Amino acid sequence: MKSYLKRKAVSSAHERYLQKLWFTQLQVWSTQLAILVIFLWIWEVAANRQWIDPFLFSSPSRIWSLAVQMTLTGELLHHTWLTLWETIVGFLIGTLAGIAVAILIWASPFLSRVLEPYLVMLNSMPKVALGPLFIVTMGAGFGSVLAMAISITVIITTIVIHHRFQSVDQSYLIVARSFGATRSQIFRKIIFPASIPDMIAALKVNVGLAWVGVIVGEFLVSKAGLGYLIIYGFQVFHLTLVMVSLWIVAIISAVMYQFIDWLEHRWIHHRYS
């Protein structure tokens, strides 16, 4: 009887804890939504009352009207889908290639010491400067845009993941070696699993970097996509079109980030359950 009452008390306390977590999260979401609504309202009022130049900064109502108009014609969906596809492909290839290179470098301590300064140098290089090289070698099209996205994501992923491989607690490695574990077994059983949180963190960073790479690539070569709409809007002084494109980029990148964050929470829940 005492055991049953104890379990019931623990269950009630756990339920109250979960309710508190949910209430806190609800407060966060409500505050975030309120900040967005207030910002849009101030923006709209400022544009209507000429506190800011509506030609330069547009307004939420103009942005919404143009977005609806372009959606009905199918034009906006075409450009959005093209940029989203390029971003997803560049994001996945850049991340996976970065992890693969990090594993390759970790497998050879000599190679790691040789390549480390070159990785730092490549990471500090402005990737926009590589645009003309990509255009010449791959043509003015999908390949150049994809190469730009990959060049931005792959180096930072390699550096972050390789650093994580090297910073795994040495006590775990010593214990594994004392039991006769091979280098391959140590990597598969200790180092790689310990590095998964950093890989997820790299995914979060790469979401933004992949969008930057694709948009910059479309600035340079593309005749379609959100980056093309942005640069075209600046050229013809149609700044509402620029704002529409920027808002779509912001919304979709935020959704992608939240999806990766959800995957991270699912992985943590699965690991500790």
What's the overall average pLDDT, rounded?
81
**Backbone CA Rg:** 24 Å
Tally of DSSP β-strands: 0
* First-to-last CA distance: 28 Å
Largest sheet: none
Number of helical stretches of at least 4 residues: 11
The helical percent reads over 70%
Beta content:
under 5%
Element string (H = helix, E = strand): HHHHHHHHHHH
Q: Could you name the CATH topology of the largest domain?
A: MetI-like fold
CATH class of the largest domain: Mainly Alpha
Q: How many separate structural domains?
A: 2
CATH architecture classification of the largest domain? Orthogonal Bundle
- Shape, per Cα inertia axes: flat
Structural class category: mainly alpha
CATH 4th-level superfamily of the largest domain: MetI-like
Assembly type of the chains comes to: single chain
